[in-house]
Each structure stands twice: as C-alpha cells, then as structure tokens.
Amino acid sequence: MSFRITQNMMNQTMLSNLQSNYRALDQTQKQLSSGKKIDKPSDNPVTAVRSMYYQSSLNEIDQYKRNASDGSSWMQTTDEGLDQVTQVLQRVRELTVQASNDTNDQNARNAIAAEMSQLKDHLGEVANSEIGGKFIFAGTDTKTPPYDTSQKQFTNTNQQPINYQVGKSSSVQINVSGVDVFNHNGGVFKLIDTIVGDIQGGINPNSQLNNLDEQLDNVLTHRSELGARVNRMDLSSSRLDDLELSTNNLLSEEADVDIAKAMTDFSAQQNVYRSALSVGAKIIQPSLLDFLR
C-alpha cells in the first residue's frame, strides 16, 4: 500500500530541510565567530565537562605559579638579608682583631666600639626586614617586628615555618627562622654587646673570635639551606610552566574550533542551502496565473 504525496507534504519537507540547513549554518557561524566548538554545555556535554576540567586545572596552576613567584621574592629578600648579616659579622670580626692589638690607646678602642654599636643597629634593621608589609624573620608572626629597637635585642620567639604550596602535594618552606639566625647560642646582638663592653673596659676581646666564627658558620649554614630551597622553587616554577603549556594544548584541542574545517563546512552548508532553495522553487506547484502569462 502506497501513500499519496501531496503538494503540502512536499512544501513541509522543504521547509523542514531549510530549517535544518539554517541551524547548521548558525552553529558553524557561532563557532567561527567565537573560536569555540560549543556555545553552551548542551551543545556537547562531554566536551563541556572536559573543557571545565582543563580550565579548573589551569586556574590551580595559575595559583601555584603565583605562590612560586611570591615565595621566590620572599626567599630572595631573605638571602639578601642573610648576606647583610654575614657582612656585618665579618666586619665585627675584623674590628675585634683590630681591637685585640695592644698598641691601641683608649681613643682608638672607643672608636672601634662606636663602629661596632653602629653595626649592631644596622643588624637590627636587617632583622626587621620586610616584604609586602611582612617581617621575614618573625616566623608566622609576620606583623610584629622581631627586633625590639628600644631593648636593642631580638625578642621574637616564633620558629614556625611558612610553607607555600606549589603543587597538589608539593610545598616549599620560604622563610628562615630569625630565632635560629639571630639568637643562636646566646645571639649575635648579645655577643656584639659583650665585645663592645670588653673593648670599652680595656679587656682584650680576642677570646670572642671563636664565638664570632660560630655565628658566621651558623648564618652560612642557613643561607646554604635557603639556597637549596630556592633551587627547588625554581624547578617547581619550570614544572608549572610546562604543565600549563600542556594543559592549554589539551584545552585547545577539546574546546577550540578547527578554523579551516569550520570554513570548509560553512561553504558546504551554504551550497546545500542554495541547492535546497533552488529545488524548492521548482517543486512549488504553479498557480493559474503562471499559465495565463
């Protein structure tokens, strides 16, 4: 049994096909204008989910990169501070050796003691080094100056580490304990006070050289440990750059449209649309007026 194909049925089929072509053209045009394969999740739920996953990963990587950058700046400032501490202690040692000379008169001794006092004040400024309004040698108590300028001593006792996360399961300690640097074995400030007191009191400060050397070795040890962490942070930054590049590539493959293919599809769809219009014009039933012309 066969069905009779009416003119109305042919017209409806033609309109339906034209609408399908319109939708295909519209979709391709959106892809070309936006550069993306989909305009909304319902266009392709699988692609949408994968794209959101990759974008979320990129957001995490971006945060880790900011952490690494901030941590590197903190550690660089810390290294510069430890370098200053080293220079101060080396100068104090030179002055101690100079003051140990018995040919110095009291005026010369007083001049040496005065310079040491100035070096101690400078060391206090280094102990109160800041970055972004945070004291780098204060442990986690970053808002309180670790060096008390009225007492002229390092009063901070916070030895908590500050760790910056640079990966899902990777973190790096960015700070150096000021207590370990400035209050080691009695502390550098008290040691300088002792040497200054000996010089002013006419006592040979030569016996304090070993204590100065121990303080210098302690600072150098912490500086070398910091250097190792700086290297690790640099490696983490490099790894994050590589991870960001690969994730961007995956996101691009998943979400970005292939322009060459989209242009080819758009041209083909335009040809199909024109053909549909041409065929449609031929199948529309002529009217009586067409025969009277």
From TrEMBL:
Does the record bear Phosphoprotein in its keywords? Answer: no
Q: Where is the Flagellin N-terminal domain?
A: 5-142
Cited InterPro entries = Flagell_FlgL, Flagellin, Flagellin_C, Flagellin_N
Which keywords belong to this entry?
A: Bacterial flagellum, Cell projection, Cilium, Flagellum
Q: Which SUPFAM superfamilies match?
A: Phase 1 flagellin (SSF64518)
Record's subcellular location: Bacterial flagellum
UniProt keyword annotation of DNA-binding present: no
Give the organism, scientific name: Neobacillus ginsengisoli
Flagellin C-terminal domain boundaries: 210-292
Q: Pfam families per the record? A: Flagellin_C, Flagellin_N
**Name of the molecule in the record:** Flagellar hook-associated protein 3 FlgL
Q: Which residues cross the membrane?
A: none
Q: Which family does it belong to?
A: Belongs to the bacterial flagellin family.
Database matches in Gene3D superfamilies: f41 fragment of flagellin, N-terminal domain
